[in-house]
Specification:
This protein is of the alpha+beta class. Helices cover 33% and strands 27% of the residues. The protein is globular. Bound molecules: adenosine-5'-diphosphate (ADP) and magnesium ion (MG). The site of adenosine-5'-diphosphate has 23 residues, from strand 8, strand 10, strand 14 and strand 15.
């Protein structure tokens, strides 16, 4: 059995390298060899009307990228992707994730996808401010739909900030969300592999409402109680994920789903909990490929 571990060619950091190297090492211990490559070979080429299989010769691909064109192409060529293309696509876009999980019994903050404007010179419709204020109140949260590591998540305190953010984001996919005050500067990250919640940490920041480790949040091990387990496993199952990191907020009446990361870094979780996440993921991959699932 031979696998391809694929990274984004433009985004190389110690965390992305760690993911691939740790997975390759754990797969090797199971007798599975894997090549780590960057996707700078144009993996979605259509030639004479047909797709070229960029992963020919490999039994599976651990897709550590979010580029939906390459994931679509590889899957269309019959490659087993971890995660699968549809799951990657649903998680890449925060509004799409929330819409997919709506009506499925998943508690989440009140969420309003932003109105998309296609003309950068157009003025923001003035009526939308009061609608958002009525629905969400201040403070509220705005997020770009595509973003991670807390980079494009903003807290809005008043009308002036809302106007500015609407101007800035009007042509970018974005959403607005109720601010969950009980979760200010703290949340829970849970790793789910093959449908099982296997590791969790609470992340706390002393300096920011966003608790991302990359922004200074500090992780400590968190017990996975039954409610947390059920919520996270159901979410991963609905999205069809082999592997994910789920962010959970502390709502007044219990846990609330914040977002789902199909490519969650596991280094911080391994350090905080001592759980070998790469080994668990490698075992899931090897078992799924050998049983044809
Ligand atoms: N609605 C919210 N209320 C309070 N805090 C939030 C809310 N949404 C996000 N956060 C905080 O911001 C962090 C980053 O938001 P998240 O949606 O996970 O985006 P990213 O993909 O950038 O991590 C979360 O981990 C959480 O600490
Ligand atoms: Mg997050």
């Amino acid at each position: 059995m031979k696998g391809l571990i694929l990274n984004n060619a433009y985004y190389e950091t110690p965390s992305t390298s760690y993911q691939g190297e740790r997975l390759a090492a754990e797969l090797k211990k199971l007798g599975v060899s894997a090549d780590i490559k960057k996707n700078d070979f144009f993996g979605a080429e259509i030639k004479d009307g047909n797709l070229e299989n960029a992963a020919a010769g490999y039994d599976f691909c651990v897709y550590l990228d979010k580029d939906k064109y390459v994931s679509y192409a590889l899957e269309k060529c019959g490659v087993r992707l971890f995660n699968r293309h549809e799951a990657i696509q649903l998680c890449d876009d925060k509004a799409l994730t929330s819409l997919r999980l709506a009506n499925c019994g998943i508690p989440m903050p009140k969420t309003v996808p932003g109105l998309l404007c296609y003309d950068p010179s157009a003025a923001v419709l003035p009526g939308i401010y009061s609608v958002l204020e009525q629905k969400l109140g201040y403070p509220m949260v705005a997020k770009q739909c595509y973003g991670s590591l807390g980079k494009f998540v903003y807290k809005i305190e008043n009308r002036a900030e809302l106007e500015e953010k609407c101007r800035e984001l009007k042509c970018t996919p974005h959403l607005f969300q109720q601010f969950i005050s009980g979760s200010a500067g703290r949340d829970i990250r849970v790793i789910v592999i093959g449908g099982k919640a296997v590791a969790a940490m609470e992340r706390k920041s002393k300096t920011d409402f966003r608790s991302n480790v990359e922004l200074g949040g500090v992780g400590t091990p968190k017990e996975i109680d039954q409610k947390l387990k059920t919520l996270c496993e159901k979410t991963a199952n609905l999205l069809g994920l082999d592997y994910c990191g789920i962010d959970i907020l502390y709502g007044e009446e219990g846990y609330l789903l914040c977002e789902v990361n199909s490519n969650a870094f596991f280094g911080g979780m391994e350090r905080a909990t001592g759980i070998n996440v790469a080994k668990l993921y490698a075992e899931h991959i090897a078992a799924a490929v050998s049983s044809g699932l």
